[in-house]
Amino acid sequence: MSRALLARNGRRALPLIYGGRRGTDTLSGVHLAARRFIVDMSYSAHFMDFKGSSIASSMKKLVVTKLSPNFREAVSTQTVAVPTPGDADLLVRNRFVGINASDINYSAGRYDPSVKPPFDAGFEGIGEVVGLGLSASSRYTVGDTVAYFGSGAFAECTVVPAKEAVPVPAVKPEFLTLLVSGATAYIALKRLGDLAKGETVLVTAAAGGTGQFAVQFAKQAGCHVIGTCSTNEKAGFLKSIGCDRPINYTAEDLAKTLKKEYPQGIDVVYESVGGSVLELAVNSLANKGRLIVIGFISGYQSASGIPPFKGGTLPVKLLQKSASIRGFFLPHFLGDYREAMSSMIQMFAKGQLVCEVDFGDLAEEGKFVGLDAVFRAVDYMYAGRNLGKVVVEVAPPSVSNSKL
Ligand SMILES: NC(=O)c1ccc[n+]([C@@H]2O[C@H](COP(=O)([O-])OP(=O)(O)OC[C@H]3O[C@@H](n4cnc5c(N)ncnc54)[C@H](OP(=O)(O)O)[C@@H]3O)[C@@H](O)[C@H]2O)c1
Q1: Which of 70, 103, 172, 263, CA to CA, is 20 to 30 A from 76?
Q2: Interior/surface letters 200-209, b for 16+ CB within 10 angstroms, e for the rest
Q3: C-alpha triplet 220, 293, 359: angle, nearest 5°
């Protein structure tokens, strides 16, 4: 039997009263106000949220039913029972979920080839706690607002281990941009960039989800920042967040521009595109340059997932410049995650960090609203149309919770 504590109203049950929680969360700096609340230990599978609005017994979620990098082929919408959280878990009603380039790597089974479909899609969400287990209740209560980086986010509700949840002061989409995109830029540059004041940093896909943060963190480190993008609108946005030299590669030749304007080479590259862009970036490195492989999106839609790369002379190029190529994969750096989130949330609160969100307002069929809009949002990103982090609004604000 589940040990979940499910808050309910309107039914006869033995109430337990918990109270007096105080203090400040060390991760987010969120002040946890003293409060008293009532939980019900009847282990019911059907439950209601803390203000009494009923949670439906069924919900929609996106499930990978066939491995493919074509998201629409791989993923289908299913209606299932709302899951019951385990002892150390939260049940989160998702308000917003984030789209990541790797959603199609995941649907192609490239993360863990031993995992076979069906499995749940989506990496990150933000919303409100609507149910929780007994152990989880030592730290959280129904109505808390949390964000999380974990699997199964493309759903109306997701079970999240309480230890992986990030308390947030409100369900703002900006916080969602930090969970994967911001954390990747923050940790990769800190741990692998070795940035020094006055160095030159090149960020590819600079106006996207993670690129926007790499630009800002490199600028904060006192570097000269170059950012690539595909439109003048994105170039204008890059200027607005401090990028010294936005390059719209559809309007000017990237290789010629780098050669002409940066003859000494680039000290650090935050590289997300792969293929010919990676080759150009390697060729553009300065002596002792560092190239961080963040991704290779130009190959993700292919069968192999890997864009062609002529690497035969790579050892020579690296040796001649004492340069290095370093790979970065966020799940390998979870030891740095809490500090990164805490720091970024504080920067955002102080107005020191722009977290640009793209809800697809200008997309052909309009804003990304409802779980099924995830399909359109993935297409939109792969058409290179996004400016900032692509976010889908899964559910409207809860009328019972002013923090939403
Ligand atoms: N290593 C990690 O742990 C980690 C974590 C998060 C993200 N990433 C990587 O970071 C990169 C960006 O991911 P994201 O989720 O933040 O996406 P994003 O940057 O928000 O969106 C992708 C952008 O890539 C650019 N792009 C360049 N060539 C493209 C191509 N052939 N097809 C589609 N887009 C192309 C487009 O911008 P322009 O049109 O302006 O060029 C597009 O807007 C990806 O490589 C992803 O795998 C890695």
Answers
A1: 172
A2: bbbbbbbbbb
A3: 65
Strands 145-149, 124-133: pairing is: antiparallel
Q: For the chain, which ranges sit under pLDDT 50? A: 1-53, 401-404
Return the DSSP state at 161. Answer: E
In a domain, 317, yes or no: yes
Are 193 and 297 in a shared domain?
Answer: yes
Q: Are residues 270 and 367 in the same domain?
A: no
Closest listed residue to residue 227, CA positions, set 255, 214, 280: 214
Measured from the Cα of 382, ligand 1's closest atom is 33
176-231 pLDDT, tens digit each: 999 999 999 999 999 999 999 999 999 999 999 999 999 999 999 999 999 999 99
Residue type for 314, please?
L
Residues 186 and 297 placed together within one structural domain of the fold: yes
How close is the Cα of 186 to the center of ligand 1, in Å? 16
341 within domain boundaries: no
Reference 273, options 306, 240, 244; nearest CA is: 306
Q: Which of 187, 192, 210 to mutate to test the pocket of ligand 1 (most atoms within 8 A of CB)?
A: 210
Domains held by the chain: number: 3
Taking a C-beta distance cutoff of 8 angstroms, is the pair 75, 64 a contact? yes
Q: Closest ligand 1 atom to the C-alpha of 101?
A: 15
Q: Ligand 1: distance of its center to the CA of 311 in Å?
A: 22
Q: Please report the pLDDT score of residue 54 as a whole number.
A: 57
- Is residue 323 a part of any domain in this protein? yes
Q: Identify the residues whose C-beta falls under 6 Å from ligand 1.
A: 100-102, 180-181, 184, 205, 207-211, 229-230, 234, 272-273, 294-295, 297-298, 328-330, 381-382, 384, 386, 390
Residue ranges making up the domain that contains 21: 5-46
Residue given tokens 């996207």 in the structure block:
208
What's the rounded Cα separation, in Å, for the pair 286 and 301? 31
Instruction: State which ligand 1 atom lies nearest to the alpha carbon of 100.
Output: 15
Q: Whose CA is nearest to atom 19 of ligand 1?
A: 208
Q: Same domain for 297 and 228?
A: yes
Residue of 88, 127, 6 whose CA lies nearest to 404? 127
Domain end call among 334, 364, 383:
334
Q: Is residue 292 domain-resident?
A: yes
CA Rg, the chain, in Å?
22
